[in-house]
Amino acid sequence: MLLTWRIILFFLLFIGQFPLQYFLSTREGNWPGRVLPVLNALIGVVWALNATTVAAALAGFLLGGGIWCAIHLLLYYAGRGKVKRRRADQVDKMNIQDLG
């Protein structure tokens, strides 16, 4: 029973964050898609500040949240591209309606 909850928690925290990031990035506003990358960057900074050497700080930042932040930013820009295409299609439809 405990193993089942661990699997569910792993799925929600580590795998479920990527579809959530893409969903938030495709919303009309810019800010919802920026929440998860900022949180991951802050977690990486906290890990880096807890290190005692520069190499450990760099490793702490990258493993603590830097890599996740980069993945989230890639998903953010992919989602924003979709929003821009959607807006351009709407403008094209309005222009066609104005001509008709």
Report on the architecture of this protein.
With 100 residues, this protein is mostly helical. Helix content is 84%, strand content 0%. The protein has helices at residues 2-15, 17-25, 35-49, 54-99. The termini are far apart.
Compose a concise summary of this entry.
The protein is an all-alpha fold and 100 residues long. It is built from 4 helices and no strands.
Write the layout of secondary structure elements.
Blueprint: H1 2-15, H2 17-25, H3 35-49, H4 54-99
Helix pairs in contact: 2-4, 3-4
What percent of the residues sit in helical stretches (DSSP H or I)? over 70%
The overall pLDDT average reads 90
Query: Helix/strand/pairing class, anyone?
Result: mainly alpha
Low-confidence stretches: none
Q: Total number of helical segments?
A: 4
Beta-strand portion reads under 5%
Q: Which features would summarize this protein structure in a list?
A:
mainly alpha; 4 helices; 100 residues
